[in-house]
Amino acid sequence: MVDFSLWDILRNLLMALRWTVVLSLIAFIGGGLVGALLLFLRLRGGSAMGRAVGFYVQLFQGTPLLMQLFLAYFGIALFGIDVSAWTAASVALTLYTSAFLTEIWRGCVAAIPKGQWEASGSLALSFNEQMRHVILPQAVKIAIAPTVGFLVQVIKGTALASVIGFVELTKAGSMISNATFQPFVVFSCVALLYFVLCFPVSLYAKNLERKSHGRRA
């Protein structure tokens, strides 16, 4: 048993917290880029491409993130590729995030009244011009709040990366708990740090949603 003070526990957890933040940003930014591409393909690629993207979304939404992490970590290794916990966690969380963001953004585009498409089409605008000048500026306003809100789910989802050996906040908490035999104190600190990280994001998302409703009203 190692004698850790509360400050020692918090200091070590804060060091691990930075990797939770970094992994969350990688997953969110990477997932956003992939999600934007998938949304474009779903809207523009025809019925076959739309079904393929729809299957992709259902696959990642309908299977546990934990399983996706295991498949990324152990599955890629079957092809003779050495995969680190960093790489596997980044890939799995990016794909998981992209599926949800694609569906969130598709719903926001679908929320734009059909008349906006018809009006822009009557001006002989191409699909890309319609999206850039008419549809996306309106859809983005709707999408900001749920997109920021989903970031909270991404942050909490990084905790599952601990099962493949990625040392983020939850994994560090488990290691410190095993060393100190103070699980209640350690995981209370872990929960507090997740709250400190997620609560401002949740508050910001609610504020954006309230402003969005006010503008539409």
From TrEMBL:
<feature type="transmembrane region" description="Helical">
    <location>
        <begin position="20"/>
        <end position="41"/>
    </location>
</feature>
<dbReference type="GO" id="GO:0022857">
    <property type="term" value="F:transmembrane transporter activity"/>
</dbReference>
<feature type="domain" description="ABC transmembrane type-1">
    <location>
        <begin position="17"/>
        <end position="205"/>
    </location>
</feature>
<dbReference type="Pfam" id="PF00528">
    <property type="entry name" value="BPD_transp_1"/>
</dbReference>
<keyword id="KW-0472">Membrane</keyword>
<comment type="similarity">
    <text>Belongs to the binding-protein-dependent transport system permease family. HisMQ subfamily.</text>
</comment>
<protein>
    <submittedName>
        <fullName>Polar amino acid transport system permease protein</fullName>
    </submittedName>
</protein>
<dbReference type="InterPro" id="IPR035906">
    <property type="entry name" value="MetI-like_sf"/>
</dbReference>
<feature type="transmembrane region" description="Helical">
    <location>
        <begin position="53"/>
        <end position="79"/>
    </location>
</feature>
<dbReference type="InterPro" id="IPR043429">
    <property type="entry name" value="ArtM/GltK/GlnP/TcyL/YhdX-like"/>
</dbReference>
<feature type="transmembrane region" description="Helical">
    <location>
        <begin position="184"/>
        <end position="205"/>
    </location>
</feature>
<keyword id="KW-1133">Transmembrane helix</keyword>
<keyword id="KW-0812">Transmembrane</keyword>
<dbReference type="GO" id="GO:0043190">
    <property type="term" value="C:ATP-binding cassette (ABC) transporter complex"/>
</dbReference>
<keyword id="KW-0813">Transport</keyword>
<dbReference type="InterPro" id="IPR010065">
    <property type="entry name" value="AA_ABC_transptr_permease_3TM"/>
</dbReference>
<dbReference type="GO" id="GO:0006865">
    <property type="term" value="P:amino acid transport"/>
</dbReference>
<dbReference type="InterPro" id="IPR000515">
    <property type="entry name" value="MetI-like"/>
</dbReference>
<feature type="transmembrane region" description="Helical">
    <location>
        <begin position="142"/>
        <end position="164"/>
    </location>
</feature>
<keyword id="KW-1003">Cell membrane</keyword>
